[in-house]
Structure formats: structure tokens, C-alpha cells
Design goal:
InterPro entries: NTF2-like_dom_sf (IPR032710), SnoaL-like (IPR037401). This is SnoaL-like domain-containing protein. By secondary structure, the protein is of the alpha+beta class. It has a single domain, classed as Nuclear Transport Factor 2, Chain: A (Roll). 30% of the residues lie in helices and 45% in strands. It has three helices and eight strands; from the N terminus they run H-H-E-E-H-E-E-E-E-E-E. The strands form two sheets. The protein has a six-stranded mixed β-sheet. A two-stranded antiparallel ribbon has the order 5-6. The longest helix is centred in the first third of the chain and has 16 residues. The chain is globular, with a radius of gyration of 14 Å.
């Protein structure tokens, strides 16, 4: 898989995320993939943990979206500068502040095995 193909995979994951389609999002991941803080604790473990975590977040933040601000593709990694906007959390009246994050997508074969967030 080329670096360009890996970049296309990460971008497809963001498109699924923005559509709030956790089922589609996890199709790009290995079965034991995870999402974690950079060099830190796992926040979503495995496809099912990722699906459940995303669905819970999407329920809380129905306006949640990511804009890709910058992108770099390497042979085994993709690094995206992502700008997250949350919108109004369910049950709140004021918008939740957005934030920028660097996301490092690691690959095993054609699938993402780990996403680490630097915030």
C-alpha cells in the first residue's frame, strides 16, 4: 500500500467520522485497533470499543465535525492536523469549544491499527 493510499484511507475515516457513521469508520481498522492519547492511555480499544465510543460521542455532540487542516503521508503512517468543532452538547445551551489535534494513524497492511492524538 502506497503512502497516497494510506492518506486516502485516513481521509475516508474522517469522511465517515463527519457523517457520524461509526460502522463505516471502523471498517478501515484492524480488529484489535485502538485510539489513544499520544504515547499514553488507550481511550477506545478494538473495533467494537471504537464503534461504541464514537456512537456515544456522536449522541452527545450531534454537530461534531473534523476539518483536515494539514496532512502528511509516510510509508507506515499518516499524520493529520485536525480541527474539531463540537457544537452544542446534547442538553447544553452553549457551544462546546473546539480544538486542534495532531492525529497519527499507524497501519498494519491496509488497515489502521492505532490512532494517537496529540492535543
Amino acid at each position: 500500500m502506497s503512502a497516497a493510499d494510506r492518506l486516502a484511507t485516513a481521509e475516508a475515516m474522517i469522511a465517515a467520522y463527519n457523517a457520524q457513521d461509526a460502522d463505516k469508520y471502523v471498517t478501515y481498522m484492524t480488529d484489535d485497533a485502538c485510539e489513544a492519547g499520544y504515547r499514553g492511555a488507550v481511550v477506545r480499544e478494538g473495533k467494537e470499543g471504537t464503534r461504541a465510543g464514537l456512537n456515544a460521542m456522536f449522541a452527545d455532540f450531534p454537530e461534531n465535525r473534523v476539518e483536515i487542516v494539514g496532512r502528511h503521508a509516510f510509508p507506515d503512517y499518516v499524520v493529520l492536523h485536525e480541527r474539531v468543532t463540537r457544537g452544542v452538547k446534547k442538553g447544553d445551551s452553549e457551544p462546546t469549544p473546539g480544538f486542534d489535534v495532531i492525529a497519527v494513524y499507524s497501519f498494519e497492511g491496509e488497515k489502521v491499527s492505532r490512532v494517537e492524538f496529540i492535543r
